[in-house]
Design brief:
Elements: E1 15-19, H1 41-44, E2 52-59, E3 62-69, E4 88-94, E5 108-118, E6 124-130, E7 148-154, E8 157-165, E9 179-188, E10 192-195, E11 212-217
Parallel strand pairs: 1-11
Antiparallel strand pairs: 2-3, 3-8, 4-5, 4-9, 5-6, 7-8, 9-10, 9-11
Length: about 220
Protein backbone atom coordinates (compact mmCIF):
# COMPACT_ATOMS: atom_id res chain seq x y z
CA UNK A 1 0.00 0.00 0.00
CA UNK A 2 1.34 3.43 -0.96
CA UNK A 3 1.53 5.91 1.89
CA UNK A 4 -0.10 9.24 1.12
CA UNK A 5 2.38 11.96 2.06
CA UNK A 6 0.41 15.07 1.07
CA UNK A 7 -3.28 15.22 1.98
CA UNK A 8 -5.53 16.34 -0.90
CA UNK A 9 -6.82 19.30 1.10
CA UNK A 10 -3.30 20.79 1.10
CA UNK A 11 -3.41 21.14 -2.70
CA UNK A 12 -6.38 23.50 -2.78
CA UNK A 13 -7.56 26.73 -1.22
CA UNK A 14 -11.24 26.30 -0.50
CA UNK A 15 -13.88 29.01 -0.85
CA UNK A 16 -17.51 28.44 0.12
CA UNK A 17 -20.63 30.63 0.30
CA UNK A 18 -21.87 31.93 3.64
CA UNK A 19 -25.55 32.81 3.44
CA UNK A 20 -27.26 35.86 4.84
CA UNK A 21 -29.21 35.49 8.09
CA UNK A 22 -31.36 38.52 8.97
CA UNK A 23 -32.63 37.07 12.26
CA UNK A 24 -31.44 38.63 15.50
CA UNK A 25 -30.06 36.96 18.60
CA UNK A 26 -32.54 36.21 21.36
CA UNK A 27 -32.29 34.41 24.73
CA UNK A 28 -33.25 31.25 22.85
CA UNK A 29 -30.33 31.67 20.46
CA UNK A 30 -30.41 32.04 16.69
CA UNK A 31 -31.11 28.91 14.66
CA UNK A 32 -29.67 28.58 11.16
CA UNK A 33 -31.04 26.48 8.30
CA UNK A 34 -29.43 23.51 6.56
CA UNK A 35 -28.44 25.93 3.77
CA UNK A 36 -26.05 27.59 6.23
CA UNK A 37 -24.15 24.37 6.88
CA UNK A 38 -20.40 24.47 6.20
CA UNK A 39 -18.46 21.52 4.79
CA UNK A 40 -15.53 19.73 6.37
CA UNK A 41 -13.18 19.07 3.48
CA UNK A 42 -10.82 17.36 5.90
CA UNK A 43 -13.54 14.76 6.52
CA UNK A 44 -14.94 14.59 2.99
CA UNK A 45 -11.67 14.44 1.06
CA UNK A 46 -9.31 13.20 3.72
CA UNK A 47 -9.53 10.91 6.71
CA UNK A 48 -10.66 13.35 9.40
CA UNK A 49 -13.58 12.62 11.74
CA UNK A 50 -17.07 13.95 10.99
CA UNK A 51 -18.97 14.39 14.24
CA UNK A 52 -20.21 17.96 13.96
CA UNK A 53 -22.72 20.05 12.04
CA UNK A 54 -21.24 23.57 11.74
CA UNK A 55 -23.39 26.42 10.41
CA UNK A 56 -22.60 30.07 9.88
CA UNK A 57 -24.72 33.02 8.80
CA UNK A 58 -23.87 36.67 8.31
CA UNK A 59 -25.60 40.02 8.46
CA UNK A 60 -24.47 43.61 8.72
CA UNK A 61 -24.66 43.26 12.50
CA UNK A 62 -22.33 40.27 12.76
CA UNK A 63 -21.92 36.49 12.40
CA UNK A 64 -24.23 33.79 13.78
CA UNK A 65 -22.82 30.35 14.62
CA UNK A 66 -24.54 27.01 15.22
CA UNK A 67 -22.70 23.83 16.25
CA UNK A 68 -24.16 20.37 16.89
CA UNK A 69 -21.77 17.64 18.05
CA UNK A 70 -22.96 14.01 18.05
CA UNK A 71 -21.52 10.59 18.87
CA UNK A 72 -20.16 11.44 22.30
CA UNK A 73 -20.25 9.06 25.24
CA UNK A 74 -18.32 11.33 27.56
CA UNK A 75 -19.14 14.76 28.95
CA UNK A 76 -17.24 17.55 27.17
CA UNK A 77 -14.09 18.61 29.02
CA UNK A 78 -14.14 22.40 29.22
CA UNK A 79 -12.45 25.01 31.41
CA UNK A 80 -12.60 28.76 30.87
CA UNK A 81 -9.10 28.90 32.38
CA UNK A 82 -7.75 26.44 29.76
CA UNK A 83 -9.53 27.49 26.60
CA UNK A 84 -7.19 25.91 24.06
CA UNK A 85 -7.19 22.57 25.90
CA UNK A 86 -10.99 22.39 26.06
CA UNK A 87 -13.61 20.66 23.91
CA UNK A 88 -15.40 23.13 21.68
CA UNK A 89 -15.25 25.17 18.50
CA UNK A 90 -12.51 27.52 17.30
CA UNK A 91 -13.18 29.98 14.48
CA UNK A 92 -10.43 31.86 12.65
CA UNK A 93 -11.65 34.91 10.72
CA UNK A 94 -9.72 37.43 8.61
CA UNK A 95 -11.98 40.35 7.70
CA UNK A 96 -9.67 41.19 4.76
CA UNK A 97 -9.17 37.65 3.38
CA UNK A 98 -5.52 38.51 2.80
CA UNK A 99 -4.50 34.92 1.85
CA UNK A 100 -0.76 35.50 1.41
CA UNK A 101 0.37 36.33 4.95
CA UNK A 102 1.93 33.78 7.28
CA UNK A 103 1.50 35.83 10.46
CA UNK A 104 -1.82 37.24 11.57
CA UNK A 105 -2.64 40.92 11.09
CA UNK A 106 -4.98 43.05 13.18
CA UNK A 107 -7.84 41.88 10.94
CA UNK A 108 -7.30 38.24 11.98
CA UNK A 109 -9.31 36.79 14.88
CA UNK A 110 -9.61 33.55 16.76
CA UNK A 111 -12.80 32.94 18.70
CA UNK A 112 -13.12 29.98 21.06
CA UNK A 113 -16.64 28.76 21.92
CA UNK A 114 -17.19 26.13 24.61
CA UNK A 115 -20.46 24.40 25.59
CA UNK A 116 -19.54 24.68 29.28
CA UNK A 117 -16.61 25.49 31.54
CA UNK A 118 -17.63 28.79 33.15
CA UNK A 119 -19.47 29.53 36.39
CA UNK A 120 -19.15 28.02 39.84
CA UNK A 121 -20.32 24.61 38.59
CA UNK A 122 -18.45 24.88 35.27
CA UNK A 123 -21.77 24.38 33.49
CA UNK A 124 -22.06 27.72 31.67
CA UNK A 125 -20.99 28.22 28.02
CA UNK A 126 -17.97 30.30 27.08
CA UNK A 127 -17.18 32.66 24.19
CA UNK A 128 -13.81 34.42 24.00
CA UNK A 129 -11.60 36.24 21.53
CA UNK A 130 -8.05 34.95 22.05
CA UNK A 131 -4.69 35.96 20.61
CA UNK A 132 -3.26 34.14 17.61
CA UNK A 133 0.26 32.82 18.12
CA UNK A 134 3.03 34.65 16.25
CA UNK A 135 0.66 37.44 15.18
CA UNK A 136 2.23 40.69 13.97
CA UNK A 137 -0.74 42.62 15.33
CA UNK A 138 -3.88 41.80 17.28
CA UNK A 139 -7.46 42.98 16.72
CA UNK A 140 -9.04 45.38 19.15
CA UNK A 141 -9.93 43.78 22.51
CA UNK A 142 -13.46 42.49 23.00
CA UNK A 143 -15.18 42.29 26.41
CA UNK A 144 -16.39 38.77 27.14
CA UNK A 145 -19.95 40.02 27.63
CA UNK A 146 -19.98 41.41 24.07
CA UNK A 147 -20.21 37.85 22.68
CA UNK A 148 -23.54 36.02 22.98
CA UNK A 149 -23.50 32.26 23.55
CA UNK A 150 -25.84 29.50 24.71
CA UNK A 151 -25.64 25.70 24.84
CA UNK A 152 -27.79 22.63 25.42
CA UNK A 153 -26.71 19.22 26.60
CA UNK A 154 -27.83 16.31 24.43
CA UNK A 155 -27.67 12.60 25.21
CA UNK A 156 -24.99 12.07 22.55
CA UNK A 157 -23.30 15.46 22.55
CA UNK A 158 -24.29 19.11 22.68
CA UNK A 159 -25.73 22.09 20.84
CA UNK A 160 -23.87 25.40 20.88
CA UNK A 161 -25.08 28.71 19.43
CA UNK A 162 -23.27 32.05 19.41
CA UNK A 163 -23.34 35.51 17.90
CA UNK A 164 -20.20 37.50 17.10
CA UNK A 165 -21.23 41.16 16.69
CA UNK A 166 -19.65 43.40 14.08
CA UNK A 167 -18.11 45.44 16.89
CA UNK A 168 -16.07 42.36 17.87
CA UNK A 169 -14.66 41.93 14.34
CA UNK A 170 -11.99 44.50 13.53
CA UNK A 171 -12.48 45.67 9.94
CA UNK A 172 -15.78 43.85 9.38
CA UNK A 173 -17.55 45.56 6.46
CA UNK A 174 -19.57 43.17 4.26
CA UNK A 175 -20.38 45.88 1.71
CA UNK A 176 -16.73 46.75 1.04
CA UNK A 177 -15.18 43.37 1.86
CA UNK A 178 -17.64 40.56 1.03
CA UNK A 179 -15.04 37.81 1.52
CA UNK A 180 -13.58 36.61 4.79
CA UNK A 181 -10.50 34.51 5.37
CA UNK A 182 -11.79 31.56 7.36
CA UNK A 183 -11.21 28.18 8.89
CA UNK A 184 -12.61 26.26 11.83
CA UNK A 185 -11.83 23.34 14.12
CA UNK A 186 -14.22 21.35 16.29
CA UNK A 187 -11.88 19.99 18.96
CA UNK A 188 -12.87 17.04 21.10
CA UNK A 189 -10.71 14.88 23.37
CA UNK A 190 -12.93 11.87 22.76
CA UNK A 191 -13.67 12.20 19.02
CA UNK A 192 -10.72 14.13 17.59
CA UNK A 193 -10.56 17.23 15.37
CA UNK A 194 -13.07 18.05 12.65
CA UNK A 195 -11.66 20.91 10.57
CA UNK A 196 -12.58 22.99 7.56
CA UNK A 197 -9.68 21.81 5.40
CA UNK A 198 -6.31 20.95 6.97
CA UNK A 199 -5.71 18.66 9.91
CA UNK A 200 -4.00 19.38 13.20
CA UNK A 201 -0.61 18.37 11.76
CA UNK A 202 -0.53 21.71 9.89
CA UNK A 203 0.10 25.06 11.63
CA UNK A 204 -3.14 26.67 10.44
CA UNK A 205 -3.98 28.02 13.94
CA UNK A 206 -1.17 30.58 13.51
CA UNK A 207 -0.79 30.81 9.70
CA UNK A 208 -3.57 32.66 7.80
CA UNK A 209 -2.15 31.52 4.44
CA UNK A 210 -3.54 28.06 5.28
CA UNK A 211 -7.10 29.30 5.77
CA UNK A 212 -9.89 29.18 3.20
CA UNK A 213 -12.46 31.82 2.34
CA UNK A 214 -16.11 32.60 2.98
CA UNK A 215 -18.12 34.44 0.34
CA UNK A 216 -20.80 36.55 2.00
CA UNK A 217 -23.85 36.11 -0.23
CA UNK A 218 -27.54 36.93 0.14
CA UNK A 219 -28.98 34.13 -1.98
Amino acid sequence: MTERLIPPTFLFRFSVPCLYSPARWSPGGLALSEAHRLPSFHAELGDGPAMADVRLGWSETGLAVNLRVVGKKQTPWCRDTRLEDSDGLSLWIDTRDTQNIHRASRFCHRFILLPQGAGRLLDQPVARLVEIARAKQHPKPVPANALSVRSEKRIDGYLLEAFLPATALTGYDPAEHPRLGFTYAVIDRELGWQTFSLGAEFPFPSDPSLWGSLELVRG
